Amino acid sequence: MKKLLFIIPCVVFVWAFSLNASNLVQNGGFESWEGDTLAVWNIDSGVNVVKESTYVHSGSYAIDITTTSTSNRGVWQQISISGGAEYIYSVWVRANGTGSNGMGILVTWRSSDGSYMSSSPTKYNSDSLVWENMVDTVIAPDTAAIADLKIRGYMNNGDAGIADDADFEMATGGISDIDKLEKSELSFSYSDGKLTINMSKNSPVSIGIYDMAGNLITKKEVAGSSVIPLELARGVYFAVSRKIGSEIVKKFSVVK
Ligand SMILES: [Ca+2]
């Protein structure tokens, strides 16, 4: 009986934690289609969204966004959110260009009757023809109840690029702002088969190392500055650092 009493709180804890960190996007991996029509997502007018199966970040499919008129067109879906809460919105993109030739993500906030309140500033991609994880931390206005999650092409009359693996998660969990890791507090360097992580905070952070194609090479939990033995070929890599309340993506090069 004692054992059972111990197991139950553990199960409840794990369930509550995973519920907190769950992805609120439906069909975020773009795997679900009705024929050639994308399921769940709404498609703006003036844009062609086609099933992409050559360049995918994960699974079998992604979407390719081609604008047929002006820019700022793409796909969006509406979800229920909690007013005042902080969320992390991230989408993997393989854009054909940058800025007005590239892709972007943003969130539009609405009140419970659906009326427009405000939008987050657009986050644009920064590389061409490589997979990159666009990540934005957004805070819902106190009286917001609905979010439109948007992925857009910013090219006029052209193929802006490919998107996959959209993720929108609530960033809560009792870590205070003082614990939150800022981008300037984290850096990576590599030499002689060792990855050195310089971090000014000591609370645990999950760090994933990805190659330019977006393949995960390794994932580690670290607390404070650390040195990880890791064999990497010459090239450019992304380090994605996650803890509850923040997500930081940094690029580093391996020169041999
Ligand atoms: Ca996919």
Map the helices and strands.
Elements: H1 2-20, E1 33-34, E2 37-38, E3 42-43, E4 47-52, E5 62-67, E6 73-80, E7 86-95, E8 103-110, E9 116-119, E10 123-124, E11 132-139, E12 146-153, E13 159-170, E14 186-191, E15 194-199, E16 205-211, E17 216-222, E18 226-229, E19 235-243, E20 246-254
The structure holds calcium ion (CA).
Q: Summed up, what is this model?
A:
The protein is mainly β and 256 residues long. The protein has one helix at residues 2-20; strands spanning 33-34, 37-38, 42-43, 47-52, 62-67, 73-80, 86-95, 103-110, 116-119, 123-124, 132-139, 146-153, 159-170, 186-191, 194-199, 205-211, 216-222, 226-229, 235-243, 246-254.
* Order of H and E elements: HEEEEEEEEEEEEEEEEEEEE
Helix run count: 1
Shape: globular
Number of strands: 20
CATH topology of the largest domain: Jelly Rolls
Query: So what's the oligomer here?
Result: single chain
Determine Rg (CA atoms, Å).
20 Å
Q: How many structural domains are formed by the residues?
A: 2
Care to describe what's here?
This protein has 256 residues and is mainly beta. It folds into two domains: 21-170, Jelly Rolls (Sandwich); 177-254, Immunoglobulin-like, CATH 2.60.40.3080. The protein has one helix and 20 strands. The strands form five sheets. Strands 3, 6, 8, 9, 10 and 12 form a six-stranded antiparallel beta sheet that branches. A five-stranded antiparallel beta sheet has the order 4-5-13-7-11, with no helix packed on it. It has a four-stranded antiparallel beta sheet with strand order 17-16-19-20, with no helix packed on it. It is globular, with a radius of gyration of 20 Å. Bound molecules: calcium ion (CA). Residues 29-31, 56, 58-59, 61-62, 164 line the site of calcium ion. Calcium ion (CA) binds at residues 29-31, 56, 58-59, 61-62, 164.
